Structures are given as C-alpha cells and as structure tokens.
Amino acid sequence: MAQLTYREAVAAGIAQEMERDERVVFLGEDVADAGGVFKATVGLLERFGPKRVRNTPISEQAIVGAAMGAAMTGLRPIAEIMFSDFLAVCWDMIANEIAKARYMSAGQIALPLVIRTANGAGSRFGAQHSQSVENWAMSVPGLKVVAPSTAADAKGLLAAAVRDPDPVIFFEHKALYASKGEVPDGELVDRLGTAKVLREGSDVTLVALAAMVPRALEAAQRLEQEERISATVIDLRSLVPLDTRTLQAETAKTGRLYTVEENPRLCGWGAEIASIAAEEWFYELDGPIIRITTPHVPLPAADALEDNILPTVQRIVETVRRTAG
Amino acid sequence: MTTRTNAATFGAAGPNDDIDRPTRLSLYRSLLEVRLLEKRAYDLFLQNLVKGTSHLSLGQEAVASGFAVAMRPDDYTYCTYRGHAHTLARGAPMVGVLGELLGRKCGLMGGKGGSMHLTSVPHGAMGSYAIVGAHLPVAAGAAWSAQYRGTDQVAVCFFGDGTTNIGAFHEALNLAAVWKLPVIFVCENNLYMEYTPIRSVTAVERPAADRAQAYGLEPIEIDGNDADVVYRAARESIARARAGHGPSLIEAKTYRTSGHSRADPAKYRPPGELDEWLERDPISLYRKRLLELGFDEPSLRSIESAVQRAVDEATEAAKASPPSPLEVIERDVWVDGGSSWRN
C-alpha cells in the first residue's frame, strides 16, 4: 500500500494503462510539459514521450473530436477537458456524436475513449469553473459516467474506464485532488457500475458521490455521536451504469433514503434514484426520500457563499435530524 | 489576400494522358452510380416511400467520385448529411443505402441512422455527420490515429461551404496543420448555405480557399464539376498526406441542381443560374470527354445500362426487405450489444 494523493492516483492510473497498452494515447490542454493545470498528469510526458502525451490548442471540440476519430480507428484515447464547465463548449461532440455513433451505425462503430475532466466546487473559481455537471452527462443515452471519491478509486476506476469498450466521462473532483489515501500496490483495475458501502447503519441510508462522500461520512459520524442516528453511507462511484441493487439492498435495511448531491437541484442524479426508489421499493421505505442538493442557482465565487451553497456536513446532519424521526 | 489559384498544380486539364483508361471508366461508372441511385431516391420520396428528410448531391457527384476513385480501400471518408454520394462512391452496397432510406432491415444501419447518417465502416465510409462541422475534428482524429499507427492511411473529409463559418472548422484545420495530420479537407462550395448565398454571409470571396493561409496551407480552388480535375487534386493531396507532408484544404466549386433538402424548391436561385450549371453537368461533361478521348459509344452505353440495372435491382431488393424489426430499438448502445444503464 502506498499513500497517494488523488491527483497522483490519477496520473498513476493513466500511466498504468499507457504502460500496458500502446493504443492508449493522451491529449489535452497543458497536459504534457506542464503536467496539467491540476498537476494530475505530472511525469507522463517524460515517461511516454510527446507522441503519446500531446498538448493541444485551446480547442475543446478538436480535443474531443480527435479522440472520437482516433477511438473509431483503433486507438484508446484519453482526452482531458480542463474544467467540466468546458464540456459545454464541446457538448455537440459528446452528446450528438460520441454518445450516438454506435447506436446510429447499428454497432459498426466502437468508441473506447475516456474524457477526464475536473468537476465541482470548492476553489472559489465562480460560476464557470466550479459546476458539478455529472447530471448533464447522465442524461444522455450512450455515455458511461464515473466520479471517484478516493485516490484508490481514482486509479482503479480510471483503469476500468480506459479498458471499457464504450465512451466514459470521468469526473475528477477539484476539491479532492490534494486528498490522500491508501492505494494498493501493483496493477489496480476496478469495476464500473459498482457502488461501495462505506459505512453500515440501521436508521438512514445516505447516498453520495465524489466530494460529497467525505461529507456524508463525517455527517454520519456526527449523527451517531450527537443524535444516536445510525447511518449507512454509500459511495455511488458511477452514475451510468447505476448500481441500483446495492442502493435497494441498503435502503431496505434502514427504510430511509437520502441523496447528497453537489449538482444543482433540478434533474440532479438523485432525482433519478428517488424516482426508481419510489417506483420499485416504495414499500421498503418508512418515510419520504429526501434530496440534499446545491440550490438551483449558479455558483457564487466568494468563500463565504461557496462554502454555504454546497451541501455542508452541518446541513446534512440537520436535514437528517429533522426528518429521520 | 492572395488570389493565386493552383490550377497548374492541382488538377486542371492537362495533357489528358495522366489518367489511365480503366481509371476513367471507374470514374464514369462511379458518377453514374451516384446519379442514378439518387434520382431513384428522389422518385421514392415522391412515392412517399422515403420518410423524413434527405439531401441530394445531384450536380455535385464529381467531387465524391473523383476522390473515392483516388482513395485506397483502407482510407477513411467523413462526410455530411449530404452523404449518399460519398458513401456509395466508397463502395457501400446500393441496396444498403436504399434500404436505409426506406427504413428497412436491409439498410446499412438497419434503419437506425437514416438518410443523414449513412455509415459503412467496411468500405471506409466512417459516417455521415448531420451537425454542421462536427466531423472535421473527427476526421482529424482518424488521421492522427493513422499517423500514430504508422499506416500511411489518409482521411478525407467533405463538407459544404456553410461549414467554413462554424467553429469546429477552425479548430480542426488548426489542429491538423499543427500536428501535420494526413487529412484532406474538401469544401464542396455549391454557392448556397442551405437557402442563403454563401457570399452574403462570408467575409471572404472563397469561403475555404481564402482561409487556407490562416493555417499555413496553400489556397486551392478547383473545378468540382470535372471528375478528372477532382481526381488529380485528390491524387496529389492524398500523396502529400501519405508522404507525411500534412493536410490540404481544397475548395471544389460545384452546384447542387436540386434543392437543399427534400423540402426546398430552391426559389432563391437567380434566373438562368441553374441552366448555366446544367450545361456543365458533371456526367454529361465526362461522357463527352470520354468520347473525345476515343472511348466508344457502345461501351459507355453498356456501363450506363449496367448501372441502371443495378439501381433497379437494388430498389426491388430494398422494397422487398421487411421494415426494421422492433427488437433493434434497445440494441447497440454499448459494445456488449445492449442498452442497459443499471443492474
């Protein structure tokens, strides 16, 4: 076991796959010499050379489009879009082209590619560099959507995404890049579509993703100590495929389901989970499904505002206390 | 802005002995296949057998045929929603094309793509892209892949004049030039961006050629109605790309003699314009050329009737094919064949 930061684990995941498979190539803005603006790709250029680690112009459509063209002709590209907000600049490529090519061609085209991007708030960057847009990707048929919360998952799920034969949008969280965690030595390959139960409780089930996972864990601890409410915490890890079996099993044990979502309220990923739960597990629920989300507003920049707009540990604790009786 | 043209190096009628006779016959056959099949497609619209929209290349066939004949089977074609011609010219079966237009099981994609998305990967037809400009970066990516794998394949990317004003055009041209990618960007300038004259919405006279220098490329403008000229330009630009000299941007002047789409009667044309272009119809032009070069009338007629027969047979086969079966609806979202998003 090694202690790695989340950003080191991302680089280790890319390196592991580039080492294993020559078809894996990597492109993006500032990714080569500079090692990425979040330093998540440091050392890759030195190790794999400029033919496989390529700097691009500020041209998101060209980055993602080139990844698509390369993927359909035998390579397994990893494309970096610096901030997930910029997915909007190349959304045509992602939503209209990449997501649909296999279906429209009746299976003639395969697109084994990964689009990595830095998602989420916490850096005081304001409304165009802080969004959580995982629900955008989740709403488009044909995309797999992954968002790790730990260093080990960043490496293992990234490796799984690269080996997956379909397009994967891989959301790394800006606020987690500096976090440290144990990462198993040697080759690490996880499985997409598997949620992880991080803590087992008996009263409520909290489902979280990415940077909301450590908050849900901390909230669970406080609920235990302060309120004697015992909470299960599930790290969803992947929105598509969605591990509904784990969600159902863990919801059935407690009878209460809470989602902790960084994306804004309307059509956030928790809405889909709530809808599935209401349709399919209604009689296993002992109370309403509660969604704890960022309010439906653009993200403000000032630290005091940003700190309070996301679901905080305090808000999770209060919401559960108020509703779990 | 330069007004230099490249007639001398790119294409224009030379001594006429630089293209061998079998190649000329291939060009003529390809032109006819595209023309006769698209005329049939139009008839099928009128019979209400083809639903949805459709964009024909009537009058523009020489661009598709001139390039396709110059390409190697393992080269890649990327084209637009006006893509019947390019897909056919690469060798996709007529019955698959007509079947796709008719929404039949025998369609190239079993009816899941339709007229605007014809794809035949085994023939190097890597897709028809219906969002203007989207496929330019994709073609650059395929060229990058060929460069990386060291295969000396090239990608040829066809698009209309209207595409030169969308952002993806610029991003793809710049990336292809910076990375020296083996890709040829071919602008089919048919004078109209849908219903609007291209010159009324474009800052330069020649929408593609006048932009070439912005990417360090040579401005190239050719006669897109002359299959020999197109073939020569294709041969040269493909050779350049294969040799590692990077991309080309070619503006082929042509004219679509039908409307933008099925719904367009093309009333925006000034009087006389259509007739002028019909006089330079690529198929009659080429037929005349072949006769001048000593090909005999009976052999041309036998090609013409063979192609007509092939179109008739493909039409009957496509009509006889059952409609797309409903079980394909949830197939082929993922490589495992399914569409499951949960366990």
Q: Beta-sheet strand percentage of chain A?
A: 15-25%
CATH architecture classification of chain B: 3-Layer(aba) Sandwich
Q: Which stretches of chain A are low in confidence, meaning pLDDT under 50 for 5 or more residues running?
A: none
Per DSSP E runs of 2 or more residues, the count of β-strands of chain B stands at 8
The protein's oligomeric status is: heterodimer
Any idea what the radius of gyration of chain A is? 19 Å
Which ranges of chain B are low-confidence, i.e. pLDDT below 50, for 5 or more consecutive residues?
1-9
Shape of chain B: globular
Q: State which percent range the strand residues of chain B make up.
A: 5-15%
Radius of gyration of chain B: 20 Å
Number of helices of chain B: 10
Order of helices and strands of chain B: HHEHHEHEHEEEEHEHHH
Determine the number of helices of chain A (DSSP H or I, runs of at least 4 residues). 12
Helix content of chain A: 25-40%
- Structural class of the helices, strands and pairings of chain B? alpha/beta
Give the C-level CATH assignment of chain B.
Alpha Beta
Overview of this protein structure:
The complex is a heterodimer of chains A (325) and B (343). Chain A has 325 residues and is of the alpha/beta class. Chain A folds into 2 domains: 2-183, 3-Layer(aba) Sandwich (Rossmann fold); 196-323, Rossmann fold (3-Layer(aba) Sandwich). Chain A is 37% helix and 21% strand. Chain A has 12 helices and 14 strands. Chain A has helices at residues 6-20, 44-48, 60-71, 91-98, 101-104, 134-138, 151-163, 212-227, 244-254, 269-280, 303-309, 313-323, and strands at residues 2-5, 24-28, 53-55, 76-83, 114-119, 144-146, 168-173, 180-183, 196-199, 204-208, 231-235, 238-240, 257-264, 290-294. In chain A, the strands form 3 sheets. In chain A, strands 3-2-4-5-7-6-12 form a 7-stranded mixed sheet, sandwiched between helices. In chain A, strand 6, helix 7 and strand 7 form a beta-alpha-beta unit. The mean pLDDT of chain A is 98. Chain B is α/β, with parallel strands linked by helices and 343 residues long. Chain B has a single domain (21-314), classed as 3-Layer(aba) Sandwich (Rossmann fold). In chain B, helix 1 crosses helix 2 and helix 5 (135-149) runs parallel beside helix 6.
